[in-house]
């Protein structure tokens, strides 16, 4: 059979159609009652009548990708978790302001559209949407021959959520004396992988090597999906006096926490309250990366921080633990400080 001119140029329309067919079941798992229509339209529809139950609904939106973590997935030929990372990076940026994510859209660009690989990526996105309670409303897969190598791809997405105007969390609610509740990360999450890949390239250590104390191969450790905090954090905000939350992504704990502190206040975070997972020490020792650089790049074991009223600190830790999110008091907000000060040392292994 003679190839079409488009196929000869490297774009396989039939492969795209097969990929859509393979992902239909994954998308269907995420549907909410507000979703109108099915997969394959030019746009996704979400019934805004659902917002009538709010007194003053405010829409919130976030867009993101997973950065160079996709290079690890491609090197290991494991593609069913990177979509979870994508959703986590989207919805956990929404929940810090108190917003419930309603739906997610995704974009996948690839060198060659291999239907099973695309379906695996979308299955991961659907899993993340299920964990967050958001619908996978639509997306786009694009083939970019000549721009990306045949096995290369990148993923990005966007999410929209809703929050009552008078329940938007942020620096305006934070007061001196508030308590910082740290929530454990599942690993590196989706930030700092350029540093990690540089360290591995310089050291000669391979993805099949073991991480001391972790019980996993390095590649497996690096592909652990980003924890999705959304449902636990929404319940925390509904039931307790939560003033702000900070998603600990690029820039590390201090820089991200500083974003939700009002002028005239700072915070002290005590490293002695937790021990980072072995992967963090492994990256630091292997690459001779000093602690300040690590803390300015990686989450160091804390993926989210809630700023709560002192009277609710213990209840917050208990609620999060019951929802499967290990949490602890890691510090306080104090007047007269500037920025976030990390004090003490992590417990020895």
TrEMBL record:
One of its GO terms (biological process) is adenine biosynthetic process. InterPro entries: PurM-like_C_dom, PurM-like_C_sf, PurM-like_N, PurM-like_N_sf, PurM_cligase. It is found in: Cytoplasm. Its EC number is 6.3.3.1. Its main location: cytoplasm. GO terms for molecular function: ATP binding; phosphoribosylamine-glycine ligase activity; phosphoribosylformylglycinamidine cyclo-ligase activity. Keywords: ATP-binding, Cytoplasm, Ligase, Nucleotide-binding, Purine biosynthesis. Residues 47-163 form the PurM-like N-terminal domain. It catalyses: 2-formamido-N(1)-(5-O-phospho-beta-D-ribosyl)acetamidine + ATP = 5-amino-1-(5-phospho-beta-D-ribosyl)imidazole + ADP + phosphate + H(+). Pathway: Purine metabolism; IMP biosynthesis via de novo pathway; 5-amino-1-(5-phospho-D-ribosyl)imidazole from N(2)-formyl-N(1)-(5-phospho-D-ribosyl)glycinamide: step 2/2. Residues 175-336 form the PurM-like C-terminal domain. One of its GO terms (cellular component) is cytosol. NCBIfam families: purM (TIGR00878). Belongs to the AIR synthase family. This is Phosphoribosylformylglycinamidine cyclo-ligase. It comes from Naumannella halotolerans.
């Amino acid at each position: 059979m003679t190839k079409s001119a488009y196929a000869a140029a490297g774009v396989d329309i039939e492969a795209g159609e097969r990929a859509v067919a393979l992902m239909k079941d994954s998308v269907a798992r995420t549907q909410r009652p507000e979703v109108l229509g099915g997969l394959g339209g030019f746009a996704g529809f979400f019934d805004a009548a659902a917002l009538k139950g709010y007194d003053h609904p405010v829409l919130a939106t976030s867009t993101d990708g997973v950065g160079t973590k996709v290079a690890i997935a491609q090197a290991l030929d494991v593609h069913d978790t990177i979509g979870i990372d994508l959703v986590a990076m989207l919805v956990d940026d929404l929940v810090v302001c108190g917003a419930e994510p309603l739906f997610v859209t995704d974009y996948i660009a690839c060198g060659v559209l291999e239907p099973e690989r695309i379906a695996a990526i979308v299955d991961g996105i659907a899993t993340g949407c299920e964990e967050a309670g958001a619908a996978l409303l639509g997306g786009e897969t694009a083939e970019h021959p000549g721009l990306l190598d045949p096995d290369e791809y990148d993923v990005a997405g966007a999410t929209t959520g809703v929050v009552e105007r008078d329940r938007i969390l942020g620096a305006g609610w934070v007061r001196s004396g508030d308590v910082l509740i740290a929530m454990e990360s599942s690993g590196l999450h989706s930030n700092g992988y350029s540093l990690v890949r540089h360290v591995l390239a310089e050291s000669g250590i391979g993805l099949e090597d073991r991480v001391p104390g972790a019980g996993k191969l390095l590649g497996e450790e690096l592909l652990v999906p980003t924890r999705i905090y959304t449902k636990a954090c929404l319940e925390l905000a509904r039931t307790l006096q939560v003033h702000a939350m900070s998603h600990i992504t690029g820039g590390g704990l201090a820089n991200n926490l500083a974003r939700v502190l009002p002028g005239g206040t700072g915070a002290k975070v005590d490293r002695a309250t937790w021990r980072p997972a072995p992967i963090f020490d492994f990256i630091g020792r292997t690459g001779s990366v000093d602690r300040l650089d690590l803390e300015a790049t990686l989450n160091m074991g804390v993926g989210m921080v809630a700023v709560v009223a002192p009277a609710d600190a213990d209840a917050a830790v208990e609620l999060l633990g019951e929802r499967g999110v290990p949490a602890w008091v890691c510090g306080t907000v104090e007047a007269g400080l500037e920025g976030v000060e990390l004090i003490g040392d992590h417990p020895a292994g």
